[in-house]
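Two records follow; treat each independently.
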Amino acid sequence: MNAAADEYLMPGGGASITALPKVSLHDHLDGGLRPQTIIELGEEIGLELPATDAPALAEWFAEKSDSGSLVEYLKTFDITTAVMQTQHGLARVAREFVQDLAADGVIYGEIRWAPEQHVARGLTLDQTVEAVQEGLDQGVEDARAAGHSIRVGQLVSAMRHADRGLEIAELASRHYGRGVVGFDIAGAEAGFPAGNLRDAFDFLAQHYIPATVHAGEADGLDSIRGALFDGRALRLGHGVRLAEDVHTAREDDENTYVTLGPLAQWVKDREIALELSPSSNLQTGAIEQWGDDLVDHPFDLLYQLGFRVTVNTDNRLMSATSLSRELFLLAETFGYDLTDLAVFQLNAAASTFLPLEDREELADRIATGFDEA
């Protein structure tokens, strides 16, 4: 069963989290495939898989992804990207991706993926973007027919360890406003700073194309600085390790005082969104310095300090999750109520790469949905 098909209620019963209107900012296309789709597309190209039935394959992905290492976590994508090398494969995956988001109550989603990883069977970069857009459009129509209203946009990612940043930025520019809403860099973070792609970010700035940058997941504060000042990032992909710049000191048994370093203060003051992904952050070891349970995640600390926190899935297949499940886990762990969950969704709406008027309309839909819950 897809995680998106499961219904999550507020802890202790009550409102359906699944039915609430939600915004997804950090969700990878190649990390959200249905296991059965992998099996069927794999058969078409003769791909050998570690399991040949959907539940077992889903279990394999979850197990392999729970390694405590981003590098090891990323190896599972060798299988998903292998079945996404044709127009048919890309369009099908994108279509089902939107269907699953809509079934989980998402009303707006930005879907990130790296076209350069999908040209092994002869597609051009532009053809991959067009194939994904075709699937996304079909998924939106399917959702409408099923009684859901959803809007989506592509975030075109460049792989930070490759030397194609400017080429991918130019690709994003060619499709900007025709499905593409922004740019991202992804892949192994440590050792590959945003500054290596400075020419791409210069190009994007000159063409008024917004960027989010993976930073503060597998590397620390220097990576976040690079994302902000070399990448001109308007959002931080994960950004969880910004908490390294939050300093606490206990004065006595009752009082703990918190001070922010200059980087954390900058991010807070400018309301730069943190695309936090709780389950994924546990799997990749991004929060290992604070602990290995969800209660150790600095999400609540950052929220209580007034940072613009958002909740995301990162990779629904690898984490066996959905946006509703992530919200449920946070509510269960930190005692959040519907008011808190509404804040997370309004934060996300305000941080989308949509025009201002569209962001305001999205916020109105979220507020109405939560008021009626």
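The next record belongs to a different protein.
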Amino acid sequence: MSAADLLLELRGVHTHIGAYHILHGVDLAVPRGQVTLLLGRNGAGKTTLLRTIMGLWRASQGSVQWQGRDIARLATPQIAQLGIAYVPENMGVFADLTVQENLLLAARGARNAQQIDGARLAWIFQLFPAVEKFWHHPAGKLSGGQKQMVAVARAIVEPRDLLIVDEPSKGLAPSIINNMIDAFAQLKAGGVTILLVEQNLNFAQRLGDGVAVMDNGRTVHTGSMAELAGDAALQRSLLGLTL
């Protein structure tokens, strides 16, 4: 794969959190226009990797290449301004603000809701009807699935080149998981590159193009999602379970 095909590439990334050495030389390639799944057991280092990409935790060694530029030393707001959006596992929804106010915070070019791109907002409402339904409701009053929709909607209220989402299906009902899969598929079709951490292997199988598996702070396998989905022995050896 040529460098031009890669939107994001990590090379030999180490991350320390206090006295703890969490990432041990991670390599990861995220091809442009694809959905890349990051899998692994709990505690493998997946969330630490996402937070390191976003500059929330600083890489102590190695490079984080964004379209050929090392961004490992940039501050988080600078990284976001490059066109990277991050939805953390806890969703980061502001509970006391309305759904509208949550999205407005992320729409940097808008001073009020009327200034949010109307066509984009209509598209978000089509992806996530609950966002429109609860537009004027406090986000903290919504269900877990509805909050997840608000979190993703907020991340895409402005055009993004890369969407990073940590465990989007966690705790969601099957019907909402299907809605989320459809939304990510539409985002991909619109040219958005997506990096997902996911524990739901059915979700991963239906959505992923490529996959990287982590264990003990290292990347232990990379390949296509189809290859992993079709190899039960490989699934057991990497993840301790099968699709």
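Discussion point: Residues 94-153 form one domain. How would you locate this feature using only the token line?
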